Amino acid sequence: DAKTTQPPSMDCAEGRAANLPCNHSTISGNEYVYWYRQIHSQGPQYIIHGLKNNETNEMASLIITEDRKSSTLILPHATLRDTAVYYCIVRAYFGNEKLTFGTGTRLTIIP
Amino acid sequence: SQTIHQWPATLVQPVGSPLSLECTVEGTSNPNLYWYRQAAGRGLQLLFYSVGIGQISSEVPQNLSASRPQDRQFILSSKKLLLSDSGFYLCALAGVGTGELFFGEGSRLTVL
């Protein structure tokens, strides 16, 4: 069973910030939050990950709540190319465990 | 850098025929390897994962099997394909020390 829950779909206007939520209420202390996205007919692409502090890279920002039970991926200026399915998963940094994905959020950027 | 190669990229097979999908990785040692399947319009379903040579964990009862004959080789097989086996098969590795998952480009299987 996936350890995360996400809304099935979201729309966002082009040029606006897209905020994608993820709940991971059973996250363990040694587990990181990872975000991936999958554009149609391709393998998932890594976006960002974090443990407890907020993180930012050239693609996105990750905001993790203080209790670590939820997080939000922010695409600051969404473009049409950001239309994809976004997956949030949790895993330990050096884990040997199975990695299950939820159904993700289908983000559609509207012109 | 770590890379994953999958083949074939596309495959059309009749019901009841055998299957072999291969995944090889480069740039890492002793990775955890995963096979996922994605049916049309659906999410990623974990099929098998392996933490080392000869070590396979199965997540979903089915007519598929997996093997890891070498550290950097992961094979997905079936003796007799079903229509429901159609889908997009993805191999992934979790590099020790990186925490990141790397995915191959996938193999698209259509069973007719």
Keywords:
heterodimer, A: 111 residues, mainly beta, B: 112 residues, 7-stranded mixed sheet, 4-stranded antiparallel sheet, 0% helix, globular
Characterise the protein shown here.
Chain A is mainly β. Chain A is built from no helices and 9 strands. Chain A has strands at residues 9-13, 18-23, 31-38, 45-50, 55-56, 61-64, 70-75, 84-92, 105-110. Chain A has a 5-stranded mixed beta sheet with strand order 1-9-8-3-4, with no helix packed on it. Chain A has a 4-stranded antiparallel beta sheet with strand order 2-7-6-5, with no helix packed on it. With 112 residues, chain B is mostly beta strands. Helix content of chain B is 0%, strand content 58%. Chain B is built from no helices and 11 strands. In chain B, a hairpin with a 6-residue loop joins strand 9 and strand 10. The interface between A and B is medium-sized, with 25 and 26 residues.
Describe the protein's topology.
The complex is a heterodimer of chains A (111) and B (112).
Chain A: E1 9-13, E2 18-23, E3 31-38, E4 45-50, E5 55-56, E6 61-64, E7 70-75, E8 84-92, E9 105-110
Parallel strand pairs in A: 1-9
Antiparallel strand pairs in A: 2-7, 3-4, 3-8, 5-6, 6-7, 8-9
Chain B: E1 3-7, E2 10-13, E3 19-26, E4 32-38, E5 45-52, E6 55-58, E7 64-70, E8 73-78, E9 87-94, E10 101-103, E11 107-111
Parallel strand pairs in B: 2-11
Antiparallel strand pairs in B: 1-3, 3-8, 4-5, 4-9, 5-6, 7-8, 9-10, 9-11
